[in-house]
Amino acid sequence: MSQLKGKNIDYFCLRYDEPYLHIPDELLETWIATLVNRNVCRLHIDVISDMPMCLFTCKTIVDLTLNESCCPVLFAGSVCLPVLKKLRMYYVVMSDESFKHLIAGCPMLEEFIIWRSFSYFLSGRFLSPPSLTRLELRTETIESVMETVLTVKLDTPAVRYHDLTDIRSENFSAVVLDSLIEADISISMFDPDDSIDSHSMIGFLRKLHKVECLTLSAPLMEEVPDSAFHAMAIKFPNLTKLKLFTDFRFISFFLENAENLEIIQINLSDCGHGCWIEPRNVPACLLSHLRTVSIHGFECLERDFNMVRYILKNAKVLRRVDIYTQSYCNLEKRHEALQRISLFERQSAACQLAFQ
């Protein structure tokens, strides 16, 4: 570190190969202070130690990554990272109050990645600065904290790209996500016997109504009856690209409510045991926009055939349908399925069918 004296530092990575090796606080503070004095711009710290306060008042740092570190107690006005644009925090120990002050001290933050796990988690309230445009939030867990109910509440009005992966939280909500154009939402339960709060899930979906690209992976909502499911009044006028790994009923739901949908990927292996329910009227997207359909996990069930039959019969501008069968479907079963689907009526003469 002494060799860096007098030189500005663009990038520095501090990592210990020995797992769980603790660096003495005095030594780490000396190193970080030297980096701050040398106007470090990009810093990656991968050590299990307490971070010194001087790190959080660096005037030059633009890109900061912290992995399995511990943050000091932060208070109002104690954080000043005026040019920080990218912040990544992986399993960092920090209180809710300190987290709030950290974000308040990053007025230029554009990209934020946070992974929370074990007993090191925040309550789930994420209030972002106006500059933030990309957010990735991942929540994991272990059995030792299974009794704790986690929540996710987003207050991120300027975020345009959002990646949410969660295997523990039961309640989801958002204040406003009107700037969001791309979202990758993956929600599952650590304990198969747990269930997501369907009301909060539906409310969260309402906040995604302006997205253009959406990937949705979520638990089945078996407690919601079909009548209530299809009564949800949520329109997605900007949605053009969709990937689904969730309740079978979401297929017809999005067809009905995303009038400009062009591309859809359906993963039937994650759709549960529901039945295909035809939309009440032919969806607008089938009449004018839907061009590509990709179906994965095709099980050769009657509901699968009914869905494909309906799409082929009504999609006027459809160009291609790709169907990938489950691995346990033998060649004979696949051949029979292909022969059957090949005889289905096609509204679009230009549609090509590929059966894998």
UniProtKB/TrEMBL annotation:
Q: Name the Gene3D superfamilies on file.
A: Ribonuclease Inhibitor (3.80.10.10)
Q: Which Pfam families match?
A: FBD, LRR_At5g56370
| InterPro entries according to UniProt | FBD, FBL13/AtMIF1-like, LRR_dom_sf, LRR_FXL15/At3g58940/PEG3-like
SUPFAM superfamilies found in the cross-reference section: RNI-like
Its domain of life reads: Eukaryota
Q: Which residues form the FBD domain?
A: 284-356
Q: What is this protein called?
A: FBD domain-containing protein
